[in-house]
User: Fold this.
Amino acid sequence: MADNVDEDAPYRIKEEDYVVLKRGDIFKAVQIVPKKKVIFEKQWFFLDNAVGQLYGSTFDIVPGGTLQPRKPKDAESPADAKEAGTDNRNIQDDGKSQKLTRDDIENFKEQGLTDQQIIQQLVDNSSTFIGKTKYAQDKYIKKKKKKYENIVTILKPSCRILALMYHGREPGKICHLRYDTLAQMLTLANIHAGSKVLVFETCAGLLLGSVMERMGGYGSVIQMYPGGGPVRAGVESFGFPAHFHDTLHEFPVCHVNALLAGTLDTAPPKDASADSTQSDAAGEEEPDPPTTEPTSGPQEVKMETNSAADDVCDPEKEAREKRIEAKAEERKVKQEEKRKKLASAAALLEGRNADGLVIASRFHPCPVLMGMLKFLAPSRPFVVYSQYKEPLIECYTKLKEQGGAVNLRLADTWLRHYQVLPNRTHPVLLMSGGGGFLLSGTTVAADAPKPAGAQRAEGPAPKRLKVA
Assistant:
């Protein structure tokens, strides 16, 4: 039986998994749902055939939206089959070198030609390709592959891949947090399994998910959130197992001062629903019908008509009352769940023994940092990210004045990509201009201020006069 065990099972794509689609430098996070159409880079396809394949596999998108695993090809590229020129000085980019038109290429696609065959046709019908240098030919081939290749690579989500995805598509959602800065934050905050970490972020859940990934499902993560509820869109893209979410707690920032002052009430409210229900029932009880017999005539006809109308309206009234009761019960259940989450998070914070603090938000970090540092145990790290340095300079000055922190460092990160190819190694021309700024430090136990009387008592005693 042991021989039949698939050792690659954890690395295979399964239904309901969250995956990241990659094509060139473009990423997109999706969930694998059977028979669900996915649109990526102006192409649509189904992910059903990807189930059972290994992560990192590349697929061809065939007509009909079906994915087929791409087989490695040993054949040489079109550039290898052609001779090259010595320089590009006599080549004019006037748009007239290509003999094929857009209609010709569309006809090739309708005839079922593969992307390699279309690229070969473009090479053969280019009047300037043979005169280009070998490097220029490779660049031309690479450009055409990016445009005409119908391929997609499926990757397993990770903090690095998702950081690249968000920074490339919607950097404003993650406060322009670059992946190298994110890596430094996780290192400086000493995130590891079994620790208790406080996270305050407005980065669509990317930073929170990265902390949870680094902890591996062990320990406690307390998300301090502003507003009515936490935002965790990025956490879902990681596709964590269920036990990862058991370590995640949430606490609203608006209750921090009440928790520090000891006035936060997390006890369940007194159950007065039974009394109110009884009183409502007593108030809605219909009066007893009159004991006197109705007189014959028009009055009797009128009473019969009213009773018939009441019988018609009763089902609608009952259905409406049931909907109101169901909504009230649902609201009551949600409030009770919210209260329990608040109580569990408050119990973790009351010990004031957290192991780390990570902050990355669009809000001013100084008041948030000063309030949350009180929940950290002594000799614990904290990291604050900001896209601009001025807010962090204010935090640095405040910590220096107030005390309680040592080893304060304010630094910026700089990253430069290089193209590494034979005889063509140089920095990439287009790159990110800045990676933001980080303020890091370590908490220490501050001495309690002594009263003024005690300070005077500790001063040197006056000299006694010598008595002759």
In short: The domain at 164-265+350-443 is CATH 3.40.50.150 (Rossmann fold). Residues 322 and 328 are 10 Å apart (CA to CA). The radius of gyration is 34 Å.
